[in-house]
Design brief:
The protein is about 0% helix and about 60% strand. With about 100 residues, the protein is mainly beta.
Amino acid sequence: MVHRIRLGPPWEATVEAGRTHWVRRFGRPRRLSPQERVWLVCDALPRKTEVSLNDTNLGVAPGGPLAADITRLLAARNRVVLLTSSATPVGEVALEIRADS
């Protein structure tokens, strides 16, 4: 079973040197069991995007959908940053809580 928490507005968007920084803050999901993992998912990134959580680089996504296990990086308060050279907004971003199989 997957529980999805949408990270809707408000996203902060700033443009510097032709690159858009999409920033969103969120709290750690409550009551996670040891068998559950938290994934950061995005339905569609407009193009190559650098992804970070709490100042830890998660890597560069080539564009399109994204899924990254962020469980070990979660804090009580979190900050996700998507940095892209496109001004096109990113698709829906969410946290998915998935049980380990």
